[in-house]
Design a protein that fits this description.
Blueprint: H1 7-15, H2 22-27, E1 47-54, E2 59-65, E3 81-87, E4 90-97, E5 103-111, E6 116-119, E7 125-129, E8 136-142, E9 148-153, E10 158-163, E11 168-169
Parallel strand pairs: 1-11
Antiparallel strand pairs: 1-2, 2-8, 3-6, 3-8, 4-5, 4-7, 9-10
């Protein structure tokens, strides 16, 4: 199978794929940071969520991570989520609730350039962070767009439903 090295080629492959073929498509990715230059926005206060493409069947989000940025612990609204590491390194931390309802870490891994992670709500929850002193970029591929998901509020020690927002939005690829 040919590698996918442009956003347009990824969108075309996803447009023509069955849901069961998406994991194979993601495994063919070989995307450079240059492919995302026009979509990248940065914030000194964390990370940005930049919508690169959105259809009824999938969503492509470019997350641009400043130094030491991290997401809260969250779910994915029942959707498949692949994270493709474009530039730099981030860390993924997965958690599940134990019998008392307390969140316990179940897995931790570093994602370096070209690495892929998969997450689904049935696996628990996760957070992604950039603990390093350099910026990073990740591409998040969702089986369907996620307009809201469960996000853990550490003050109340419970999950809340949070509406998702974009820092930038591109209508079409």
């Amino acid at each position: 199978m040919d590698t996918i090295n442009t956003i347009e080629a990824l969108a075309e492959a996803l447009d023509n794929a069955k849901k069961s073929e998406r994991a194979k498509i993601v495994s063919r990715l070989d995307l450079s940071p240059d492919a995302f230059e026009e979509y990248a926005t940065w914030s000194d206060e964390g990370y940005t969520r930049n919508c690169v493409a959105r259809t009824d069947d999938y969503e492509l989000l470019l997350l641009c991570w400043d130094k030491e940025a991290e997401t809260p612990i969250h779910g994915h609204g029942g959707q498949d989520c692949w994270v493709y590491q474009i530039d730099g390194t981030v860390e993924e931390i997965r958690v599940k609730a134990d019998e008392n309802g307390d969140l316990k870490e179940t897995h931790r891994m570093s994602l370096s350039e070209g690495k892929i992670s998969y997450m689904h709500d049935r696996m628990g929850f996760h957070k992604i962070r950039n603990p390093f002193n350099q910026r990073a970029m990740t591409l998040h591929i969702y089986a369907k767009p996620i307009d809201a998901c469960r996000v853990f509020d550490p003050k109340n020690k419970e999950f809340e439903i949070k509406e998702m927002e974009y820092d930038t939005f591109v209508d079409a690829v």
